[in-house]
Each structure stands twice: as structure tokens, then as C-alpha cells.
Specification:
The chain is 44% helix and 31% strand. The chain has a domain of 119 residues: Jelly Rolls (Sandwich).
Length: 206
């Protein structure tokens, strides 16, 4: 039994989808973070911006088509949540705004994002469904295993697509090489025949 528990703990550690980052945001600049996500993925984020008198920081979350998923102006700290509808590239941008009459200063921005299983509130799910702590943990492990299976399926699909692309490219290169060789042979034959007619016309050869 201890072995199974250890395996579950290791799998949970390896599959954790939590990302934390901190950076310095210069005055009147913008910093964006991008990531590719699958469809129907829950994403939560928690951010905090250091204070700077007279300065404001805005944030916006959007997809590659420009659809806004979350947005707020003049932030100090807060949270955001959204669910992806399709496979796409999503970006989170933080923008510093400093009035012309103020001297800007660098601000520190920290961002912690969670996605998938780690973004779900299993305590709330357990309370709503009246589940015991062990049942809640089993539910989380079940969702985690499903997420891992989906990731492996996605990796296999991408591998198949890359293999098909590779095979298609190899076939096209082969056909192009054969076509090039035929063109070179035809050109060489034409040159020989042309030079032969030319020398015969000049009576240099018979």
C-alpha cells in the first residue's frame, strides 16, 4: 500500500501545473507572457504589483484572436479565472502607465498561475458533494490521471502529425530530386545534340 501512495505522490509532483514568476516592470512598458493551452482547461492566476506613487499598472488576458478573457486597470493585487474554449495561444500582459509630470520607477510584479487539476477547488467540490477527505483526494487523483492520459494522447497525436509531415517532406524531396535529375539529363542531351549539329554545320566533324 505504501508503494502505491508513493507512486501517487510522485505522479502528483511531476504533473503539477503551477507556475510562479516575478519580474521588474519598467515605467511605461509592457510585459507579456504567452502559453499554448488545450481546450476546456481551467486557468487561475494570482498577481501582486509593488506600490509606486502616481503610477498605475493594468493587466489583460486574451487569446491569439484578440478576444479578452480578463481585464482590469490600476491593479495592486488580485486574481483572475478563465476556461479555454479552443486550443490556442493565450497571453497575459501587464502595462505600466506613468503620467508625464511624474518620474517613473521600476515596479516588481509577481504572478502565480495554475491550470488543469491544480486550478480546481477540490475543497469546495468536496463540501458541495459532501465527500470525505479521502474521497476528495481520490477525486483529485482521478482527474490528475485523466489529465496525464490526455497529455499523452496529445503527445502521440503531435508525434503522428510530425511523422506524417516528415514522410510527406521526404516524398516531395525524392520526387523533386528525380525531376531535377531528369531535367539535367534532358538538358545535357540537348546540349550534346546541339553542339553536334553546330560542329557538323561548321564541317568540323562528319
Amino acid at each position: 500500500m505504501d508503494v502505491y501512495v508513493l507512486i501517487c505522490v510522485v505522479v502528483s509532483f511531476l504533473a503539477t501545473n503551477i507556475e510562479g514568476i516575478m519580474w521588474k516592470l519598467e515605467p511605461n512598458t509592457q510585459k507579456c507572457l504567452k502559453e499554448e493551452l488545450q481546450s476546456n482547461v481551467l486557468v487561475t492566476g494570482e498577481f501582486e504589483v509593488s506600490e509606486a506613487p502616481g503610477q498605475k499598472v493594468d493587466y489583460i488576458v486574451r487569446d491569439s484572436k484578440g478576444h479578452i478573457l480578463s481585464q482590469k486597470d490600476d491593479i495592486s493585487k488580485g486574481k483572475f479565472t478563465f476556461v479555454t474554449e479552443t486550443y490556442d495561444t493565450f497571453e497575459i500582459c501587464f502595462t505600466s502607465r506613468v503620467p508625464p509630470q511624474h518620474r517613473g520607477m521600476t515596479q516588481e510584479v509577481s504572478l502565480v498561475t495554475k491550470r488543469g487539476v491544480e486550478a480546481k477547488n477540490y475543497e469546495g467540490i468536496g463540501e458541495a458533494a459532501k465527500l470525505k477527505p479521502l474521497e476528495v483526494e481520490l477525486k483529485r487523483l482521478e482527474d490528475l490521471s485523466d489529465s496525464i492520459v490526455q497529455d499523452f494522447s496529445l503527445m502521440r497525436k503531435r508525434e503522428e502529425e510530425m511523422r506524417d509531415t516528415n514522410e510527406s517532406t521526404n516524398s516531395r524531396v525524392l520526387y523533386f530530386s528525380i525531376f531535377s535529375m531528369c531535367c539535367l539529363l534532358g538538358l545535357a542531351t540537348w546540349q550534346v545534340l546541339y553542339l553536334r549539329r553546330f560542329f557538323k554545320a561548321k564541317k568540323l566533324i562528319e
